[in-house]
């Protein structure tokens, strides 16, 4: 169900491109930031080698591919070309046409709508091009920023799993979000009927 090659997706301000080996320093900047990692399901990285190992796992997609990962890169202005985050489709169940989405943007770029812009691009690609019937997300219920990003893309909160993650000494819950194809299609129709309206608004 996933493509053998990661395609580049373009939005008004971003390019979502395949990860590269030379992204390791940028990824380490992300994953070594305690504030960025506050609600992630693995600990803060402390060594560049950890980022290199993680990047290697992301780039070894398997056959058939088990996940697809994008680097979120600015495409406008003085910082054009800067990697500011990542977005991923993973936990694919091809028989059910289902996948999970994950995303993160460096905190120096929070509050500018980049996560929502990237997420909407991947959601549209997942339904329109890859043919998924359902996309899911699992976030810490305290992560209000990610919740807003998902809700802007049309996801609805569907449940809560108590004490699902243990990272270090901290136990946390999971809020489960879902978006089904029919709801996504309805939002697309509304957007096409009202010129200038974005489904993520």
UniProtKB/TrEMBL annotation:
Name of protein: N-acetyltransferase
Origin species: Trinickia fusca
Matches recorded under PROSITE patterns: GNAT
CDD domains, per database record: NAT_SF
Residue span, N-acetyltransferase domain: 14-178
InterPro entries: Acyl_CoA_acyltransferase, GNAT_dom, N-acetyltransferase
UniProt keyword terms in alphabetical order: Transferase
GO molecular function, one term: acyltransferase activity, transferring groups other than amino-acyl groups
Keyword hit for Thylakoid: no
Presence of the UniProt keyword Protein biosynthesis in the record: no
